[in-house]
Amino acid sequence: MESRETIAAIATGMGNAGIGIVRISGENAFAVADAVFRGKNKKKLSETKSHTAHYGHIYDGDELVDEALVLVMKAPHTYTRENVIEIDCHGGSYVTRRVLELVIKNGARAAEPGEFTKRAFLNGRIDLAQAEAVIDIINARNGYALKNSVNMLSGKLSTAIKSLRDEMIYNIAYIEAALDDPEHISLDNFGDKLTGYVDKWINSVDKLLISVDNGKLFTEGVRTVILGKPNAGKSSLLNTLLGEERAIVTDIAGTTRDTLEEQINLHGIILKLIDTAGIRQTEDIVEKLGVDKSRKFAKEADLIIYVVDSSTNLDDNDMDIISMINEGTSGNVIVLLNKSDLETRTTAEDIRRFIDCPVISISAREQLGLDELEKKIVDMFMGGNISYNDEVMITRVRQKDALNQAKESLLLVKDGINLQMPEDLLTIDLMNAYEELGKITGEAVEEDLVNEIFSKFCMGK
User: Fold this and answer.
1) % the chain with pLDDT above 70
2) CA distance 178 to 181
3) Measured on CA atoms in the order 377, 383, 385, 389, is the torsion positive or negative?
4) Which pLDDT tens digit goes with each residue over 388-435?
5) DSSP annotation string for 81-138
6) Strands 332-338 and 303-309, bridge-based pairing
7) pLDDT exceeds 60 at position 284
8) Is this model's pTM higher than 0.90 or not?
9) Cα gap 234→274, rounded to integer Å
10) How confident is the model at residue 285 (pLDDT cuts 50, 70, 90)?
11) Beta partners for 90?
């Protein structure tokens, strides 16, 4: 996976801006930069001190291209642990691309997505969990996701995993040494000691696994499906939450025939809102397809907001929705008694006869009761406490799978101890747990997986 080629890419977003940055990394970074940059002091960049800035101009032969500031960073004290040059030119999309083309023309090649961070990983600057944190920081959509990603990048998860692996490999080595030299190293009562370690390791893995749901909440958002029969006010609720007329609202039942997806940030929690077709018995083929899709989304939701028209009595369509919620969903449920500004025919007590969940009276049209809805959602998903602690949260399926596999192997070790199995057999499962945890930090990972992870990065990072 090693490469000694010098790479270059635009590190800033495309479009007009005050500054555009072209980043170069590799053994020949200084030579490439010297070929296009003429500094005011006329010194070669390779002859300057590391971590210094130099004013000058970019040239294509004798043609002046742009004024620039060049940052010099010498290996190994750089992001990639290679020689790194950053050319800060004017931020027009044309001029930045022109500078990149000149750099490539003079010996660099265009970097692949994430290749700078990939080199940081391959050169031991960061591990794989930290590398994934880099893209998570870039993609963070709220303060919680950002703080967690920064914690990951600082090495909190990596430190926890390393501690577990160090203890595991020590015990594996002890067992193997005792089997090789039983006269001097005894395994008497070692099973009791190892049981204590295994219980501790399982507890540590469990703590990380418990964080998965919160990690998903912060990075992916809460998949929120708005259900209700036609004309209950689902689309009005969506428009009110978004603060714009996104969904068509009419008095004609069945106006919404397909799902409509939007996203809002609610006190730091991302809600991925899905407004569904009104659920009712219908012979209209198109409307029926929308109703079937509504049922499917409801089964996969993290949160169902069931909108009831409180100005009408519950009917067979409501009963159908209630049965679907009670029988086919595993997410959280909030019932909204909409149209509270009109005469009430359906009350909270009526709803609680059929569903055990929070019930809130609102008026989507008059924007009444929405503060209570927001508070309930925060309480539901944050336990009423949205202050972030410093515990690391697992956000990636890859990391979750590795933890689950490690836990399974540790449980096998525990079973083996209870069955008084030979110690050399215990080391097989211990080593499996050790290897699975190594996948998280990249110490036991295949090249194809590394390439796939970094292919999801943006250019220039």
Assistant:
1) 87
2) 5
3) negative
4) 455 677 878 889 999 999 999 999 999 999 998 988 899 999 999 999
5) SS-EEEEEEE--HHHHHHHHHHHHHTT-EEPPTTHHHHHHHHTTSS-HHHHHHHHHHH
6) parallel
7) no
8) no
9) 10
10) low
11) 19
Q: Which two tokens stand for residue 415?
A: 């079973």
Question: Is the separation of the CB atoms in 218 and 393 below 8 Å?
Answer: yes
Nearest 5°: CA angle at 73, between 72 and 79? 140
Per-residue pLDDT tens digits for 189-223: 888 899 999 999 999 999 898 877 666 666 777 88
Q: Are 75 and 93 in contact (CB under 8 A)?
A: no
Residue with tokens 């004309």: 231
Handedness of CA 105, 95, 70, 79 (dihedral sign): negative
Whether 14 has a pLDDT exceeding 60, the answer reads: yes
- Which tokens in the block code for residue 306? 């069931």
| Contact indicator for 50, 72 with CB cutoff of 8 Å | yes
Q: How many C-beta atoms lie closer than 10 Å to residue 137's C-beta?
A: 17
Cα–Cα distance measured from residue 80 to residue 348, given in angstroms and rounded to the nearest whole number: 60
CB atoms under 10 Å from CB of 27, counted, come to 12
CB 290 within 8 A of CB 229: no
Inter-CA distances, 370 with 135, 228, 373, Å: 34, 17, 5
